[in-house]
Recover the amino acids of this structure.
């Protein structure tokens, strides 16, 4: 099993809808979890981090972590065309190494 | 927020030459920096972990003699691609741990093209 597995998509949602992005992870990356957004040709930008079970909200973004199921997700409410990007899920090991999922390409259709 | 810079942003070189890429943490000290490589339409692949004052730790399959890493200070790590070949053409991205934020922050990346 890969350290972090992500539903590869691509995912298309209409403007204003909720976009749901999901990841599962292995025992190796049990410390912290991050969601990065990467626009084409650019480097990843950190948008959310989550360390404990439950939900964490920041503006239109909500990260959800379920350690029992080894599952982390990102919800984007009121999706905008500017949200169109590749979203990378990452899990951190105790040695502070990040392992990335393959990314989910999101397209928000105006 | 945290800022990590990289230089150069883009480099084109001839096969056989060496290229040095700098990664700097601008407003914090980073004892650990990371170097990634990303090929088109693929995810980030960790190449090595750069530790200030000690040798870098390379991931399996990454040649340490080809990709030289130096982390001489708490704000600077360099990656030198030695004897570059066209297959080394890629997007190289560094990141730095900001411990108090509990996250890694990425530089803007360096696009290397080897002719």
């Amino acid at each position: 099993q890969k350290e972090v597995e992500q539903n590869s998509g691509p995912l298309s949602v209409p403007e204003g809808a909720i976009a749901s992005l999901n990841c599962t992870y292995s025992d190796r990356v049990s410390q912290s979890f991050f969601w990065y957004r990467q626009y084409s040709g650019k480097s990843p930008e950190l948008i959310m981090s989550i360390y404990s079970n439950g939900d964490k909200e920041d503006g239109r973004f909500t990260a959800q972590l379920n350690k029992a199921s080894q599952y982390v997700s990102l919800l984007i409410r009121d999706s905008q065309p500017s949200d169109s990007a590749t979203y990378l899920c990452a899990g951190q090991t105790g040695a502070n190494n990040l392992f990335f999922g393959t990314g989910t390409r999101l397209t928000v259709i105006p | 927020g945290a800022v990590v810079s990289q230089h150069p942003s883009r480099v084109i070189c001839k096969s056989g030459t060496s290229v040095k890429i700098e990664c700097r943490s601008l407003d914090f000290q980073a004892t650990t920096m990371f170097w990634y490589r990303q090929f088109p339409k693929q995810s980030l692949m960790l190449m090595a972990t750069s530790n200030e004052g000690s040798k870098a730790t390379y991931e399996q399959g990454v040649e340490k003699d080809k990709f030289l890493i130096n982390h001489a200070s708490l704000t600077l790590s360099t990656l030198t691609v030695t004897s570059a070949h066209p297959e080394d053409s890629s997007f190289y991205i560094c990141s730095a741990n900001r411990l108090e934020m509990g996250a890694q922050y990425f530089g803007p990346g360096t696009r290397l093209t080897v002719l």
In short: Chain B touches chain A at residues 32, 34, 42-44, 46, 49, 91, 93, 95, 97, 102-109 (CB under 8 Å). The radius of gyration of chain B is 13 Å. Chain B is about 0% helix and 55% strand.
